[in-house]
Amino acid sequence: MVTRRQLIATASGIGSVGFLGYLLSRDDGTSDPPLPPETNGTPRPTQTPAGTESGPDDGGDDDFANREDVVDVREHGAVGDGQTDDSGAITAAIRAAEPGETVYIPETEDSYLLSYDGTGEETAIKLGTESDLRGITVAGETAAAGAQTLRVEPGSYDTSAPNWILKLNAAQRLENLTFRNLTIDGSRPSRDRAAALGGEDAMTGVLLRRGSAGGGHSLTFENCIVQNCSASAMRFEESGVTCRNVTARRAGRHGFNPVAGDTAVDPGFVGESIRSVDNGGTGIDHRRGTARLENVYTENNRSGNKWKHHVRRLEVRNHHSVRDHNRGWRSNHTGTDDTPEVQQIVFRNILVEQPQISGIRVSGDDTAIACDFHNIEVRQTDVQNARAGVVFSRDVHTQEATEGRIVVVGTDNGGGIFVGSDAVLNIGTFDHYQNEEGPFIAESGELNFENIENVDPGRNVFGTPGAAAVGAFSGASN
Q1: 386: pLDDT confidence band, cut at 50, 70 and 90?
Q2: What is the DSSP code (8-state) at residue 217?
Q3: Residue 112 CA to chain centroid, in angstroms?
C-alpha cells in the first residue's frame, strides 16, 4: 500500500536513493581525546541507556514510520550512508510536516551527510520563513550518542565565510518545535585552533537568528549533542529556548551562547542538564536577557563561563566546573548600551575546581549587581591577575542575612576571598584551608560571616553533578 508520505515523496521528484548522490570526497582523520561515542561510522548501539526517552522506537521502526502522523526522511530521499548529501532531503521532510507531526530520522550505521557548495554563507538545514513549524518534532529513532548523526562533509564549505548546520530564522514564532535524539557534527578540522585565537570561525552548529518575531518562541532541544563546530555549537538570539539533556563540545568558540535581548519569554533561555566541554571560547556565554541553568557540568573550556553587562538575570544552580581555563564564572562588562540598573545574579550549589585565574569573579562596573551567593566551593585555584579564589568588587551586594556557606581551599598566589570597593558579601559559614595569602582580603569592601573555620570539609560538599550525570542521554532531565 502506498502511504500518503510516499505520494509526497514521489510528487516532489525525490527518489529513495538520495536526490544529489554527492559522494564524500575525503575524511580529515580527526583524532580526539576519549569522549562518549559519536559519529563517522559509529557501530549501532546495542541498548538504550536507562532513564532516557526512547523516542520513536517504542513500537519498532516499521510501526512508527508508517503512522499517518509521521514524516520519514527516507521518503524524501535521505539515505544515511555517509556518502549521499542528505541536506535537501532532511530539510524537505521537515518543511513537509504539518502541525502535530513527527519527522522521523532512523538510526543508521553511517551518518546523514550534509554537504556544501563552498560558496560561503550556506545553511544545510534552513527553516523558518518557508515553513509552518507549529507542533513539529524532529526525532532520531534511538536515544543514544551517534545513533543518528547529521555530519558536515569535511572540506565542503568555505572556511573564510560563516556557514550553519541548522539555522532557524525567527520571522515568525516557533511554537512547540522540538529536536530530539540527534548528534550534530560540524567536522571541525583536526588542526583548527580556537576561533578566538585566529582559528577557523566558519561553521556554527545551531543558530536561532533574530527576526521580526521578536522572541517568545517555544523551541526545545532534548538529548542532542552538538560537536566539532569551528564557531559556536549553539547560539540563540531570541527568547524561548530550552536545552534539556544537551551536550556541546569541541566548538571553536562557545558551547552555549544565549543572546536574547527580548523579554517576551522569561527566562529567555533554560538549560536543564547541560554539559559543555573542550570548547575554544566559553562553555556558556550569556550575553543578553535572562537565563536559568540547572544541573550543569563544564570542563576544559578555554575561556571558562561568563555573563555580559547587558544580562538582566542569570540563575545558576548545581554547577560543577572543572579546569575551565579562565574562571568558573565571571562578569564581563564591556559597553554601556542597554544595560540594566541592577543585574540579578543567582549562584547556588556551585563547585569550581582547578580554574586558571580564579574561581568566581562578580564585578559591577557600570551596573550594580544584586547577587544571591549561596553554597559555593572553590578548589585548587592558581590565581593569576586576581586577588583571590572568589572575587567580589565594584558595587556588588548579597542579601542582608548572613546565610549559606562558602568553601575555598588551596588558592595559590592569593587569598580565599577578596571583597573590593563598594562590595558587600554576607555569608553564614566560611571554610578556608591552605590559601596562600590568608582566608580573606577585605581592604575596601565589607565581608560579614557568622562562622569561620580553618578546615577542609572535603570535596564537593554541595553534591554538584559529575560529567556522566548530565548532558545528552544522561537521563537527568526534570
Answers
A1: confident
A2: -
A3: 22
Q: Once rounded to an integer, what is the mean pLDDT over residues 306-328?
A: 95
Same domain for 360 and 233, yes or no, is: no
Q: Within this chain, do residues 250 and 357 fall inside the same structural domain, yes or no?
A: no
CA 387 vs CA 3, 337, 439: distances in Å: 68, 29, 12
Same domain, 345 and 241: no
More confident residue, 45 or 380: 380
- Give 229's contacts (C-beta < 8 A, 6+ positions apart): 165, 186, 188, 203, 204, 205, 250, 251, 252
pLDDT tens-digit readout, 159-178 = 999 999 999 999 889 999 99
Q: E strands within 263-404? A: 269-277, 284-286, 289-299, 305-308, 311-322, 327-332, 342-353, 358-363, 368-382, 388-393, 396-397
- Cα–Cα distance for residue pair 25/6, rounded to 1 Å: 31
What is each CA distance from 93 to 55, 101, 180, in whole angstroms?
A: 18, 11, 15
* Shared domain check, 268 and 364: no
Report the C-alpha gap between 452 and 432 in whole angstroms: 8
Q: Give the pLDDT band of residue 334 (cuts 50, 70, 90).
A: low
Same domain membership, residue 444 and residue 357: yes
Asked which of 216, 249, 281 is the last residue of a domain, the reply is: 281
Domain that holds residue 193: 4-281
Checking if the pLDDT of 292 tops 50, the result is yes
**Rounded CA separation 95/101 (Å):** 11
What's the half-sphere exposure (Cβ side, CA atoms, 13 Å) at 190? Answer: 7
Q: Could you tell me if 362 and 268 lie in one domain?
A: no
Q: What is the CATH number of the domain that holds 219?
A: 2.160.20
Q: Residue 340 class from Cβ within 10 Å (0-12 exposed, 13-18 middle, 19+ buried)? A: middle
- The Cα 249–Cα 29 span in angstroms is 18
For 178-229, how does the pLDDT look when each residue is reduced to its tens digit (9 = 90+)?
A: 999 999 999 999 899 999 899 999 999 999 999 999 999 999 999 999 999 9
In a domain, 225, yes or no: yes
Residues 453, 355 share a domain: yes
In the chain, the number of structural domains is 2
> What does the alpha-carbon distance between residue 6 and residue 15 come to, in Å, rounded to a whole number?
10
4 — phi, psi (to 5°)?
-60, -40
- pTM of the shown model: 0.87
Last residue of a domain, one of 281, 311, 326: 281
Distance of alpha carbon 370 from its chain centroid, rounded? 25
pLDDT, one tens digit per residue, over 234-288 is 999 999 999 999 999 999 999 999 999 898 999 999 999 999 999 999 999 999 9
